[in-house]
Automatic annotation (TrEMBL):
PANTHER family: THIOL:DISULFIDE INTERCHANGE PROTEIN DSBC, THIOL:DISULFIDE INTERCHANGE PROTEIN DSBC-RELATED. The keyword S-adenosyl-L-methionine does not apply. It comes from the Bacteria. It holds the Pfam family Thioredoxin_2. Residues 1-19 form the signal peptide. The gene is dsbC_3. It comes from Moraxella ovis. InterPro entries: Thiol:disulfide_interchange, Thioredoxin-like_fold, Thioredoxin-like_sf. The keyword Signal applies. Residues 36-154 form the Thioredoxin-like fold domain. This is Probable thiol:disulfide interchange protein DsbC. Keywords: Signal.
Length: 157
């Protein structure tokens, strides 16, 4: 019994340590930054421009105030060149919104970009899909959620 408890305790400690390091391992410079209001609450969003659930989540996130969302372009379902074009656009955030919400193809562009690094980070951290929201404490929320669910999740510790 003691061995089982010790094992469970070690696994819990390891998962907490992993969660703490997850946010720290993000390179925020590799993200599109969307800030609403003072932006006091923060989360990272692992997103794919071809992901329907990501687009649904975007609509919910747009309704939340006082939040900063760091959006990491991670093309798991194709769309690598589109993600590069968004990153290389004169106004990245606008190109991203047009692509995800209006489903307009971005103008073809090329530049030094973090898309491959974002993908490598995603696989190294063994994440399982998009969309994924990550809080500064490392907690992950996968899939679609309503505005109210996201607000509650952001407030929880």
């Amino acid at each position: 019994m003691f061995k089982k408890l010790l094992c469970c305790s070690l696994l819990l400690c390891a998962s907490v340590a992993y969660a703490d390091r997850l946010w720290q391992s993000l390179n925020l410079k590799n993200s599109l930054v969307f800030k609403k209001g003072r932006g006091e609450q923060q989360a990272a969003m692992i997103t794919d421009i071809n992901c329907g659930y990501c687009r649904m989540l975007e609509k919910e996130l747009d309704q939340i105030d006082n939040v900063t969302i760091y959006k990491f372009l991670t093309p798991l379902q194709g769309g690598y060149s589109q993600s590069v074009s968004i990153w290389c656009a004169a106004n990245r955030n606008s190109a991203y919104v047009r692509s995800t919400q209006l489903q307009e193809a971005p103008k073809v562009a090329s530049c030094s970009n973090p898309i491959s690094s974002n993908l490598a980070w995603f696989y190294k951290k063994q994440l399982v899909g998009t969309p994924a929201l990550i809080k500064p404490n490392g907690e992950i929320k996968y899939g679609h959620a309503t505005k109210e669910e996201i607000k509650q999740w952001l407030k929880s510790r």
